Inverse folding.
């Protein structure tokens, strides 16, 4: 029995496990087709450029195009374009562009991982529509398609979307023969090798050290085996991001492949989340310390604070603005104000303080804040007498209100809904002075509702999102909301981090507003939306002329946090200077 276990069962099981892993690794390489492609077979009668465009959620754009140069007199020439990013419905466009001439199209096919979708003969005519610059798009006597261009922008567009066939195209084979062949060969070699090595143990008695070695190897191998047998499911709610996908092996860019695989391995290692949670939990509970002090520190009464520059800024108040800095910011804000005034738009800037500014008493004893004024306090005092600039600093409002209510989440960087309401009041009272149609919401319109939800971002960094929850009094409106959320537009010139949101009050004569903002304004949005017939919330700090031209707002609001205050030192967009110089 012992001989059977050592010479048969152990080698076979070990070789089988490794061979399965090799097979799974090989099917993720360029040994196996990973891409959906567009294939075109055609004859050419002139030298030309043939372009393929993939439609995004808005239009056919140059960044989603591929071009192939065609020589004159090619017969049965096969062209392949790779179809990327097919998660949303998108059409395809085949474009000879400015070339005038004739092509004979014999086949157009969507080449899937296993299955293909083929268009030939009259099915091409039914599946594609020519534009006005296509002179001829018809079936020839040989049952091919004659495509003749006579204009400067000729193309044909599919009547279907790639996603109409996506399930069929992405279907994977039950078995990939070449990787399977390599795996079988590996299985045979490994079985033979292990049998040779394990013959040493047939007559040798097993010792406790052998058991320890076996247990150790099993423990360090288990996460690797687990990540391949049970891949981690994407969870945007807990991760706040997409996990790195397994890269396809590429001999040409082999160094890049190893870097991508390292990132994938670190993201998807088996048991990563439970082990990280366990490590963070015992450090937090036993020692009141953070498992990631470079990102989060544990304060008094279990309050969490961010230490990342982009989130907390200069939370220790180590630096100050010079007089030149303050004058530069003032000049930029005056320029923005005058620019919008020229378009009959009111501009308002609101700055929200970071958590450590309002609750320094909860910082750990090893973190000391300088007693000098913060940059925000400096700027606020400097601009106090600049009547042309609508600058709102809610720090004093927060410090006064915190005696009665918590304004920040205990385990999160953000203000809570009460903090959002206090900031909203300061903002809307300023805006009411400019437009009498605005009637601020009152706290009495809302009632408190306790909720416990695992949405705390600092807890999430420590993998304690289901341990350290956000306990909060949620302000819920006691009467029916007037505003509704509608489909928001896309803007070509605005780089956004999150989807644009739009609220609307139908049949209203209230003013319109544009808000450039970050995640903090999410907690102000339910109140702010009640005061405008239409409000567009753009998750970006880069203001665009395109937006005001399309929306014609009465107000433009820029909301930033104390951590991002230095961006006001940056020069304003060129379109503002051009507008002021007209």
């Amino acid at each position: 029995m012992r001989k059977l276990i050592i010479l048969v069962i152990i080698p076979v099981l070990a070789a089988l496990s490794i061979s399965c892993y090799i097979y799974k690794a090989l099917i993720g390489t360029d040994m196996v087709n990973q891409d959906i492609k567009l294939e075109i077979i055609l004859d050419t009668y002139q030298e030309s450029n043939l372009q393929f465009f993939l439609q995004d959620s808005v239009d056919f754009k140059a960044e989603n195009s591929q071009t192939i140069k065609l020589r004159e007199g090619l017969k049965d020439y096969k062209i392949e374009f790779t179809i990327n990013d097919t998660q949303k419905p998108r059409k395809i466009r085949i474009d000879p562009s400015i070339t005038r001439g004739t092509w004979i199209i014999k086949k157009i096919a969507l080449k899937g991982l296993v299955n293909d979708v083929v268009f030939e003969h009259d099915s091409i005519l039914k599946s594609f529509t020519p534009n006005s610059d296509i002179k001829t798009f018809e079936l020839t006597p040989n049952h091919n398609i004659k495509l003749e261009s006579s204009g400067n922008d000729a193309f044909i567009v599919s009547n279907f979307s790639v996603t109409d066939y996506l399930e069929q195209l992405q279907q994977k084979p039950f078995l990939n023969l070449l990787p399977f062949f390599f795996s079988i060969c590996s299985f045979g070699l490994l079985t033979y090798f292990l049998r040779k090595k394990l013959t040493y143990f047939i007559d040798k008695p097993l010792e406790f050290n052998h058991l320890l070695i076996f247990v150790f190897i099993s423990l360090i191998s288990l996460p690797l085996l687990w990540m391949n047998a049970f891949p981690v499911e994407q969870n945007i709610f807990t991760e706040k991001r997409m996990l790195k996908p397994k890269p396809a092996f590429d001999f040409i860019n082999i160094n890049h492949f190893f870097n991508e695989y390292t990132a994938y391995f670190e993201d998807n290692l088996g048991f990563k989340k439970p082990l990280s949670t366990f490590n963070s939990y015992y450090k937090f509970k036993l020692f009141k310390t953070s498992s990631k002090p470079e990102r989060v520190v544990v304060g008094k009464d279990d309050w969490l604070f961010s230490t990342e520059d982009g989130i907390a800024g200069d939370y220790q108040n180590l630096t100050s603005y010079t007089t030149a800095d303050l004058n530069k910011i003032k000049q930029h804000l005056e320029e923005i104000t005058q620019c919008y005034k020229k378009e009959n738009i009111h501009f308002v800037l609101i700055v929200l303080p970071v958590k450590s500014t309002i609750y320094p008493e909860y910082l750990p004893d090893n973190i000391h804040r300088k007693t000098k004024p913060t940059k925000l306090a400096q700027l606020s005092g400097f601009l106090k007498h600049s009547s042309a600039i609508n600058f709102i600093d809610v720090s004093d409002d927060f410090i006064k209100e915190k005696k009665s209510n918590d304004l920040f989440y205990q385990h999160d960087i953000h203000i809570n809904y009460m903090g959002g309401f206090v900031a909203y009041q300061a903002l809307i009272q300023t805006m009411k002075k400019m437009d009498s149609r605005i009637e601020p919401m009152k706290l009495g319109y809302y009632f408190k509702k306790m909720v416990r939800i695992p949405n705390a971002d600092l807890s999430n960094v420590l993998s304690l999102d289901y341990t350290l929850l956000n306990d909060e009094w949620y302000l819920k409106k006691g009467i029916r909301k007037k505003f509704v959320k509608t489909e928001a537009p896309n803007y070509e010139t605005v780089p956004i981090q999150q989807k644009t949101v739009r609220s609307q009050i139908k049949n209203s004569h209230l003013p319109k507003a544009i808000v450039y903002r970050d995640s903090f304004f999410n907690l102000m949005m339910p109140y702010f939306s009640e005061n405008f017939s239409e409000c567009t919330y753009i998750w970006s700090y880069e203001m665009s002329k395109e937006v005001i031209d399309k929306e014609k707002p009465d107000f433009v609001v820029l909301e930033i946090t104390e951590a991002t205050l230095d961006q006001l030192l940056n020069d304003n967009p060129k379109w503002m200077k051009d507008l002021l110089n007209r």
User: Anything to note?
Assistant: The longest strand covers residues 60-70. The mean pLDDT is 85.
